[in-house]
Write a structure and sequence with these properties.
The chain is mainly α and 168 residues long. The chain has a single domain, classed as Winged helix-like DNA-binding domain superfamily/Winged helix DNA-binding domain (Arc Repressor Mutant, subunit A, Orthogonal Bundle). 56% of the residues lie in helices and 10% in strands. A hairpin with a 2-residue loop joins strand 1 and strand 2 (8-9). Helix 3 (57-64) packs across helix 4. It is elongated.
Length: 168
């Protein structure tokens, strides 16, 4: 078999597939913002908060694999919109505890799952060898694109990967 599929070089097919993935992430993010007024990372944070009665900013950041400064910026915007409340810990005044509000719970009842949740549900249905094949191919592509040094969290969203300034 040659290196062409449907008249296209395989490299073009790979680039088309990458573009489709990026567009899917972008469309999901735009749809979330248009319908619910939130972004993908905000949704991930709100969903994680809804799993806890209260959680510290540091614990939240670690749980969702984002930097504490990034999470704090997102939380500032979520607090202004009434989705979360913050309070100082009585045991350790340096710790700030976050809690989801009723407004947050109402939003989460209506909002769709984050895109990565949909992906993970499908990914976990694959055989183990298929999962490893996908991972290996993606890791090779990261190296080929010179993106190995980019710090990324397991959140599918548009915008800069290491910091969601204004894009959260």
């Amino acid at each position: 078999m040659n290196n062409k599929t449907r008249g296209q070089p395989l490299s073009n097919e790979v680039l088309i597939s990458l573009r489709r993935i990026m567009q899917a992430v972008d469309l999901h993010s735009k749809s979330l913002n248009k319908k619910y007024g939130i972004t993908g990372p905000q949704l991930v944070i709100l969903q994680e908060l809804s799993e806890h009665k209260e959680i510290s900013v540091g614990e939240l950041a670690k749980t969702i694999s984002l930097g504490q400064a990034t999470v704090t910026g997102v939380l500032n915007r979520l607090e202004k919109r009434g989705f979360i409340t913050r309070r100082r810990s009585e045991k350790d005044k340096r710790r700030v505890l976050i809690r989801a509000t009723e407004t947050c719970k109402n939003l989460l009842d209506e909002a769709p799952p984050p895109l990565q949740e949909t992906f993970l549900n499908q990914f976990e249905k694959l055989h183990n060898w298929e999962q490893h094949m996908v991972l290996s191919s993606l890791q090779r592509m990261v190296v080929m694109m010179g993106a190995k040094a980019i710090d990324a969290a397991p959140i599918l969203a548009t915008g800069p990967v290491s910091n969601f300034n204004g894009q959260d």
